[in-house]
Amino acid sequence: MPQIAAETAHQADSNERVAKIEQEIAAETDAGRRAQLEDMRIHSKMLAGRGADRQLRARESELANALQAEQATLSDLNGRLDALERQLETPPR
Questions:
Q1: Of 27, 51, 59, 93, which one's alpha carbon is 20 to 30 angstroms from that of 40?
Q2: Separation of alpha carbons 55 and 64, rounded Å
Q3: DSSP letter string, the chain
Q4: How many domains does the chain have?
Q5: Torsion sign, CA atoms 34, 27, 9, 61
Q6: pLDDT tens-digit readout, 10-36
Q7: CA pair distance 63, 88, nearest whole angstrom
Q8: What angle do CA 54, 21, 36 make, to 5 degrees?
């Protein structure tokens, strides 16, 4: 979970950076500086998108591990159930 929290914080920082750049673009009158800011915005949005991907991959991995653990438990319980059913099927001596 700490990794997801760190990614969430990183994502929030990236989003704030993009918002700040967009404010600067809106206020900028120099065409050269404005083009520079547009490039920065594009780059920042790409980085922000990658953060979301990492967060989703981390969560997917976490869920896959939890699923695997639950499937192992289910398999164990099914084995026990099968053993109990076999015991019930054998006639008493």
A1: 59
A2: 14
A3: -HHHHHHHHHHHHHHHHHHHHHHHHHH---HHHHHHHHHHHHHHHHHHHHHHHHHHHHHHHHHHHHHHHHHHHHHHHHHHHHHHHHHHHSPP-
A4: 1
A5: negative
A6: 778 888 888 898 898 899 898 898 889
A7: 37
A8: 105
Question: Is residue 75 scored above 80 in pLDDT?
Answer: yes
Instruction: Extract the tokens encoding 54.
Output: 């990492």
Report the predicted TM-score, pTM, of the whole model to 2 decimal places.
Answer: 0.48
- Evaluate the CA torsion angle 72, 77, 83, 86 in order and state its sign: negative
Amino acid code (one letter) for 31: A
Print the domain residue range for 49: 2-89
Q: Which of 27, 25, 59, 30 is nearest to 45 (CA)?
A: 25
